[in-house]
Amino acid sequence: MNFDAQTVLVTQMDKKRIIESIPFQESPTMLLNYKKVLATRIIEHQRSKFKGFDDSDQKF
Fold first, then answer.
1. 60 and 4 in contact (C-beta within 8 Å)?
2. DSSP character string of 18-47
3. Residue ranges of the domains in the chain?
4. Which of 2, 38, 46 is CA-nearest to residue 19?
5. Contact indicator for 31, 24 with CB cutoff of 8 Å
């Protein structure tokens, strides 16, 4: 996947906020859920950028 600088910055800010609020060491399930949510957010952000160009799925 290719990420633009804005996506990476937003992702890093979300990651920092979540890391500060969730003790991952105590719950590996929470870490997996976080990674899943973060990946979904990145994909949705990338798709929204290309929404007007084509109706088909974009390859990133």
1. no
2. HHHHS-GGG-HHHHHHHHHHHHHHHHHHHH
3. 5-47
4. 38
5. yes
Give Cβ neighbours of residue 2 (< 8 Å, ≥ 6 apart): 60
Q: What angle do CA 57, 42, 6 make, to 5 degrees?
A: 110
What is the residue-level pLDDT of the chain in tens, covering all 60 positions? 455 555 566 666 666 665 555 555 567 777 788 788 888 888 888 888 776 655 555 555
Of 8, 9, 15, 11, the residue nearest 31 (C-alpha): 15
Q: How many CB atoms lie within 10 A of CB 22?
A: 14
